[in-house]
Amino acid sequence: MMLLCKPSLLTLPPLRTSTSTPRNPKRSLSIITTNSTSPTQRRRTMSALEARISLVFALASQASSLSQRRKFLVDTATEVVKYVSPKRFESRTLEEALMAVPDLETVNFKVLSRGDLYEIREVEPYFVAETTMPGRTGFDFNGASQSFNVLAGYLFGKNTTKETMEMTTPVFTRKTQSDGEKMEMTTPVITKRMEDQDKWQMSFVMPSKYGANLPLPKDSSVTIREVPRKIIAVVAFSGFVTDEEVKQRESKLREALKNDAQFQIKEGGSVEIAQYNPPFTLPFQRRNEIALEVEKKEK
């Protein structure tokens, strides 16, 4: 009996399994076939479409990238040429003949007279961006670098319109009177010292195309002002500017102007130093100018 029961028990599971088979296998297979092939076809169609779209975007991106690269290279080459092929002022001495000035926008002026020691210029009005320099000297490297970076920040987008403006020349460093006269954006950059506070100011000349419609600086330490028409006595010299050299050249210029038959130093006039070149320029090619504001003598 036991031997007969065991086979019957062993055969039960296969019988149950067979009863679970669908009654209509053909219909079931057709459903399975439909469900298995449709997603595959959809995936293939989407992949092809996505591939085409990706290709279009890739080509557009590549064209845009090439266009941007070309523009960048053209802009870079244009800027390099301004420094590699500089312009030169009319020279009075061999020292001036060796000086080179970047081909950038600068202050407009006309020469009224030229002597052995200096020349007299009438300078047209211009605008400057100006900041007060830290420290007690006008040509301290750290103070000058800090002030230059503040003004450059304004010029290259740190303003209310986020506009990048073109660089100009020169940079002015200027002593000022005790009344704390403010200066406008000009060329060159001016560093100006306030006599009562022993402070200097640095100025960038603003591109002339803006006129008085310059964007306002976001940095409160930067001010914008128009420099009126003026007459100045100018001496050019090469090398790197130091406070001691400025004192010596200012003293010589003041002494020479005492013998000028037409012009005299304007009362309250301050000394101004213009630097035309970037830091990497060789000393003998650098053009610097020291200037004093003058006026015609009364007849």
Report on this structure.
With 299 residues, the chain is α+β, with helices and mostly antiparallel strands. It contains five helices and ten strands; from the N terminus they run H-H-H-E-E-E-H-E-E-E-E-H-E-E-E. It starts with a helix and ends with a strand. Strands 1, 2, 3, 4, 5, 6, 7, 8, 9 and 10 form a ten-stranded antiparallel β-sheet that branches. A hairpin with a 4-residue loop joins strand 1 and strand 2. The longest helix is centred in the N-terminal third of the chain and has 60 residues.
Write down the overall geometry: elongated
Mean pLDDT: 75
Radius of gyration equals 39 Å
Estimate what percentage of residues fall within beta strands: 15-25%
Largest beta-sheet details: 10 strands, antiparallel
Distance between the termini: 152 Å
- SS elements, strand count: 10
**Low-pLDDT residue intervals, each spanning 5 or more residues:** 1-37, 39-44, 79-85, 178-187
N-to-C series of helices and strands: HHHEEEHEEEEHEEE
Helix percent reads: 25-40%
Oligomer: single chain
Strand-pairing-aware structural class: alpha+beta
Annotation field: number of helices: 5
